Each structure stands twice: as structure tokens, then as C-alpha cells.
Amino acid sequence: MSGSDASLAATEQTERLERVVIRFAGDSGDGMQLTGDRFTSAAAAFGNDLATLPSFPAEIRAPQGSIAGVSSFQVHFADFDILTAGDRPDVLVAMNPAALKANLADLPPGGTVIVNTDEFTPRNLTRAGCAADPLEDGTLTSFQVHPVAMTTLTRGALADTGLSKKDAERAKNMFALGLLSWMYHRPTAGTERFLRQKFARKPEIAEANILAFRAGWNYGETTESFAVTFEVAPATALTPGTYRQITGNSALAYGIVAAGARSGLPVLLGSYPITPASDILHELSRHKNFGMTTVQAEDEIAAIGVALGASYGGALGVTTTSGPGLALKSETIGLAVMTELPLLVIDVQRGGPSTGLPTKTEQADLLQAMFGRNGESPVPVLAPATPADCFDTMLDAARIALTYRTPVLLLSDGHIANGSEPWLVPDASQLPDLTVEFATEPNAPDGSGGFWGYLRDPRTLARPWAVPGTPGLEHRIGGLEKADGTGDISYDADNHDRMVRLRQAKIDGITVPEAVPDDPSGRAEVLVVGWGSSYGPIGAAARRVRRAGHGVAHLHLRHLNPLPANLGEVLSRYERVVVPELNLGQLALLLRAKYLVDVLSYTKVAGLPFGAEELQGVFTDAIEGVRA
Amino acid sequence: MTTIDLGLPGIGGQTLVPRSETKLSPKDFKSDQEVRWCPGCGDYAVLAAVQGFMPRLGLRRENTVFISGIGCSSRFPYYMNTYGMHSIHGRAPAIATGLAVARPDLSVWVVTGDGDALSIGGNHLIHTLRRNVNLKILLFNNRIYGLTKGQYSPTSEPGKVTKSTPMGSVDAPFDPVSLALGAGATFVARVLDSDRAGLTDVLTAAAEHRGTSLVEIYQNCPIFNDGAFEVLRQPGERERRLIPLRHGQALRFGAEGEFGVVRTASGGLDTAKVAEVGEEALVVHDATLEDPSYAFALSRLSSQDLAHTVTGVFRSVSHPAYDDQVRAQTEQARSTTPADLQSLLAGKDTWTVVG
């Protein structure tokens, strides 16, 4: 058989798949995040459901070729609705020895490895700590290996462009993207358009990247290396409508813009740059036309101070941070509790304690959010479940802050902040009405014509929001204890006891939707309770357990304070309650304390989300334990 | 009284604040709260001066806000019948920044002390000054921690014996005026709590300044640091110690004006006897100099032992205010880009799933 016949045959052989997980891995400087992001956009444009898991080092440029410098991007795309970015990649694209070494253990036997052989030099092997060349020492015998000299081929494709060798080689990530795009029948027009826009000021670089991208595609089509290509059809079971791809941080930023629009209030974000929350600041600072004001403050404390000052002035004050920053903001959150002003505090959690793992995910700030302040200082706490859910959760947080005049903590995390998924674009005119009424008239019940700053709405227990500039309502607030009603300073013991209980009762009385577990069988004996970004892995694991013929119920809590009023009753319905968390059991501690339920706590703090397979085992064990 | 007219362009510090239609009196600015400072505290004099000065600004009371941190002086807002917030230790400048950015129609005043502003809140103070937010900061300096009952502060003199320094403080103190100038402050002044006329002059100039005004007020704590500034009040002493600044006038002091300020060979400033150097050698005060080194040299004439203390307006220069620029960017964005929420949410890359 001649070469051309073989290539013809290869392109004719197409296998249909329901789902594929691809992981692009390379050095920090290899552009793996961009490559993964483009592949994701193409999958989205094609109509697949998808979920992504970017992973990158905290160092901007760790030593080249080292294990510490490996950056990766995993994308899971499917013809049905998926919940996670996938436990294990089906395909690993390794741009150098370190990327192969760092990721190979995640690949199941029989998985596909595409390696850039040019980078497997003695020097790079040493940098990666490889005693022998894994391409030759039998390491890869249980995988389908496609060695491709990507750097050489890219350089060759760009030989006529006049670019330097170094600049030409930088386009090798687009070669990899082109090859994978060919393998999975991805549309290419979007990527070419994107490259032209991205490098609009350097057209020669744009053309070089497009050339490399096409060279990768053509390489797949014309060589005999790849016998089969794959198709993943568009997902059809999704709710009809217009979709876009969105990350959690973008969805939070859009939620803030929407909260401003639906409340009619100007928004002021005070923020100090911190990984992985900074993108919210970046995004909001681009939307000044929506009345978004962003202040990059001198520190975390100033950032929340600026936000609280704006709230005092009648704006919607917002601050964004990650765990260490939340620790610094504690005192000001306490002041917001005491002054009973609306304030949104967003914590994009990362591995801790201290500086911890800045680019890795964790759910270990729950107790800090609940209790990390002096005194009895109750604060509502909400957590989004997915990147798209960040938008709705943000609006819900704004509703609570504005209705109840309280700081609200929203706990996102690194996984959903950077991960992306399709989002059914909402109808802006149908978003919740967040209109607020400022106090305008004196309210003193003693007939004095004065203003009492702490006279509460009997329905919500919220105090009036009387903003400076309102004549006749001049009053003073602050961190000292207030006299119930008047709001004057009070050191009275009974008054303090009453005020502490009133502040607690206000938060306890916040309207929160009832807890409704997802249990298709209706006969589950085991209930899994989760919160935050573990929604996907828990949901995917529950599907696997159900496919295996078992019943399992899944309850995912957006509202962690206050908890749904019926939660105790729901928990009592099940033989066993399992709580998986990326911490050492913080929600489990709360549920045990509040409901005296002997929950089974399953925990992991590895900087990565749970795997569906891992949780499937945990749930199955729990189910078998109940039956035993 | 002589208000300093510096003839600066642009809008004044209170231009965007609505003016009162009725004539207010000092009484209108007194709240119903009982003042609880110690008898003899210098804060009383400052409170009276501010309450007396406010009606002259002619602003609506409800558009005036006092924000403080923590410390004795930070109780100030409770005694003003305006809007006010008694916030947390050191953070008043940050909170006031948010308010000033959000609300150009408010006259925002920060009341702070030497511990509040220079120790725990030092970071916010310098960044507020460099940004030049349109805030008026009154820094009450009594060189001691009063509310916590008598520990040394960042302005206490070296060797000071206090409860926390029984063998004497070994900290080198800040000069708040020098610090502010180093941070790029556009308006810096100093005044004594007991100098009612001087206070009113400086407050008026501070209020008119667009941007951050820092006014350091030497204030006596009769309980924990009584008489700290006494030599600056005593007849016979004060004349040869106090160096008053008057814009456009030669720097002279002493009972008979026998002393003056001259330039040194190294480019700094020093005091001298006029009889020895001649009147023509005296420096004429110019608060509007863009180069801050002159104002800084002036600030270094003051010494911790009060051998000399410079009072009045050190620097008053016109720079764009942070909050004005922030709002200008917002306005520009609003006028050039429509706020279409639906198209923002949809973005540029959408696809449709058909049912």
C-alpha cells in the first residue's frame, strides 16, 4: 500500500465517541493554557457540552523544562451533559519530558500519548529528572504513542516567513492544536479568526501561528501515523437556548454587573490583586460603562474599607480576594456586621494555610467564613456549584446583602474560578429585581421627629439604609455597640445581649430555598451532601453508582449560612449521610454540631478536585455499609 | 483672619457639595450626645473650632460626613450633628476613600490620631496622600496612646518613659508633616489646638483645597502626656519657638521678629538672627512650590524637643484628585459605550441548542 493510499484510508476511518478527555501539557512558556482554551472554544462552537480544568504553577516561569514548570489544561467534551472535566485524560499531549513525566500516571492503560520528540534531548531529560528516555525505555508500552517532531515540523512550516528560529518554534503549540483539531474533526475557522485578532498588531506573528496550526492539521491528514480520527457529536440533551462558554471568575464579574443593573445602584469594587481572584477585578474594570468603579487598593484591608465606605454612601460595595486576604479583611467584615451595611465579599479559595498553594483549589475557608471574626459575628455564606452557577449565586448574594443590610460571603474556589463550561445565557430582563429603598423620612417612634438608625423592619430585621445627603436623618454609626432602636452608643449589658441575639436572628431568618435532594430512584438510603465546586464530581459519581443499580441521593448546598430550614429533617430521612469536601471535614463538623447527625466525612486536600471514580467508590462503600 | 488665597486654577475642595439654603450656626453642628473626653482635653478646643468653622463653609449639614478610626479623637463624629462613622483602628482613610469616590456631593472629613494614622493606619495614610483623594484629614497628635491608657506612640520623643517603656522608648519618631510630604501630599499644615484663629484659617484653606488635605493638630492629653506642647503656649517661650508660615511673607519669628529662616549652603533651611544675616537673606514662604523639597526642609526645622515648631500651611499645590479622575473615566466610558447588559452576558461567541 502506498503512502497516499494509507492516508486516504486513515481519513476515511472515523470512530464516533460520546466523550473525550484531552490534556495538553507542556512547559509554562509553551502556551498550553491558550492551546487548551482554543480547543475548548472550538468544542463549544461545535455544540459539545464541555468542562475544563486548567492547572498551572504559582511561578510565572519556573525553570524551563522542570517538573515544577509544567502547565496543563484538561478539557472534557461530550455529546451529552457532563459534570466534570474528567478524572483521567484519554489523550495526553506532552510537549516535553517533564510534561510527560508529571502527567503520565493519570493516563489509563491504552490511552493515547502524543509527544513532541524534539524536546526529548539529554538536557531536557536531565531537567525532568529522567534517568533514561521514556520514549525508549519501555515506560510507554501500555499506551498508544504518537511521536511527532513538532518543533522541527513547525520550524519547517515557517521557514519562508523570515521569522527567527526562536520565534518560529514558539508556534509549536498551534501545531499541536492543529493536529488535535484534525484528529477530532474540530472546526478551524474560529481559531484562525482568534489568532488574527489576538495578534492584530503583529500580523506576521498571526500568520505564523495560523501556518503552524494548518501544518499540524495537514500533518495529521497526510501522514500514516494516525489510523483513526474521532467524532464527538454536538450535545442534544441540553436545554434549548443560546449558550456561551464561561469561567467562574467571569460569571462572578457578570453577576456583579447584573446586580448593579437590577438594583439600580452604582457598584464599587475595592480589590487587591491575589491569585486566583484577580480576574474578577480585571473583568469588572472593563465595564465602567455599566457604572462599575474599581479601586485597586493598597492592601486587602483598604480594599474592603473602600467597598464599605461606598456602601455607606449608598453604592453596592464589593470586595474580592482569596483565603489569606479574607483573613486580613476580618475586622472590616465585623464592622459591616455591626454597622449593618450591605457588602459583598468574594473569596476565591485556594490551598492553605498561609500562602499555601496559590494556584490549586481547596474548600478550606468555610469555617473562616463562618466564624473568622471576633465576637458573635454572623454572616451569610453562599457557595456556587459550577462556573455558570457563579452568576446566579452572585445575584442571590446581592439579594441577601441588600434585603438584610449585611455583609455576605461568597465562597468560590480555584477550580470553578478558572474552569469553564457552557452557560445558557439568561434573559437580562428576567433577572431578579433587586431594587432597594433608602430611608428618606425621620422614623423615631417617640414623636421627636428624629431618626433612629437601628429601628428594624419587623419582617427582615434589617435596619434602615439612610445615606449621607438625606436631610433630617443625620446620624452616626460605628463599631461600638448600639442601643437597640436609636443606634446611640450603649454599654448596657442587657442591651448588648439583646443586640447580639438580634443580629443572629436577622441572619438566621434569611429566606433560603428548601433543601431538595436529587434522588431519581426515590429509594436511596444514602444521602451525599456537598457544597461548592465538588458538585460536578459528586454528581458524576452519583450517576455511576445509579448506573450500577444502586440508589444514592445528592443534596448540594448553595446556602451554608443560614442552612435550609428543612435540612435537619432531610438528613434524618437517610440511613447514612456522606459529606465529601476538599478540606478536613468543615461542613461535616457544622452538620454534626447543628443536627447531631453522624455524617461520614470524606476528605481530600491535594489541590485538585475529587475524581468521579474516587467518589463512586466512597458512595458504593457507604451503600454497602448500610446494607451490611 | 486671613484666608490664604493661592489663586489656584480648577475647582475647590467643596465645589461639588450642595450649599445650605439656610444660615447654620455652630449649634446646628452639635449632636445630642454627651461629650465624654477627659476634662482639659485638647479635643474640646478642636471640636469647638470645627463646629464654629462649619457654618462658614456654608455646606448642607446632611452632605457633611466625619469618618474616624479608633482612639480618643476618633469619638469626634459622635459629637457632630452630621453624618458620621466611627470605624476601626487606622482604616478611616480607606473607608473615606470609598465614600469620596462614590459620592462627589459629600464633604468628607477624616478624624484620626497619631497612633491611628501613623502606626496601625500608616499604610492607608500614605496611599491616600499619594492618590490625592478629595478628603480633609485632621490628625490629632498628642504624642501618646490615650485610649489604651498611656503607651508611647510613633510621635513620642525617644527615651519617653511610659507603661510599656519603663526604661524609656528607643523608637525614633515620625514627623507627620515630613511623612506626608514624602508621600506626595498636596496640602499639608500644622496648627496648635489652643490656637483658635490659626485652626480656623488652616481648616478653611484645607477645606478649599481639592485633593487630600492633611492638618496635623498638636493636641494636649492632660492625663497621660500633660504639657507635651506647653512651651509652645507659654509667653516668652512660644515667640522664639514657633515659626508661623504666611504665604508670600518672609519667614520671621521671635517676640520682635528678630529671628528668621535662611537657606543653607547644602540647600536646606536653618534659623538665624535677622540682625546677623540681613532681611534680604530671609526666605519668603511659598506654599505653592511644586518641588516638595522646600516644604520638606521647612518640616525639618521642627524638632522633637520643640526648640522650633513650624505652623501654618507648608504646601498647597494643585494636582488632579483621584476621585475626580476615577469618575471622569466612568463618565467617559458611559458616554462612549452603551450599557447593554444582554449583549455583555451573551459575549461574542454563542451557539444555539435547538430543542
TrEMBL record, chain A:
Domain Pyruvate/ketoisovalerate oxidoreductase catalytic: 29-216
Annotated coiled-coil segments of the chain: none
Classification via InterPro entries: 2-oxoacid/accept_OxRdtase_asu, Pyruvate:ferred/Flavod_OxRd, Pyrv/ketoisovalerate_OxRed_cat, Pyrv_Fd/Flavodoxin_OxRdtase_N, Pyrv_flavodox_OxRed_cen, THDP-binding, Transketo_C/PFOR_II
Domain Pyruvate flavodoxin/ferredoxin oxidoreductase pyrimidine binding per the UniProt entry, residue ranges: 267-484
Keywords: Oxidoreductase
Pfam families: POR, POR_N
Protein name: 2-oxoacid:acceptor oxidoreductase subunit alpha
Organism: Streptomyces ureilyticus
Automatic annotation (TrEMBL), chain B:
Record key words, sorted: Oxidoreductase
Pfam families on file: TPP_enzyme_C
Domain Thiamine pyrophosphate enzyme TPP-binding: 70-217
Annotated Gene3D superfamilies: 3.40.50.970
InterPro entries the UniProt entry points to: 2-oxoacid:Fd_oxidoreductase, THDP-binding, TPP_enzyme_TPP-bd
Protein origin, superkingdom: Bacteria
Protein name: 2-oxoacid:ferredoxin oxidoreductase subunit beta
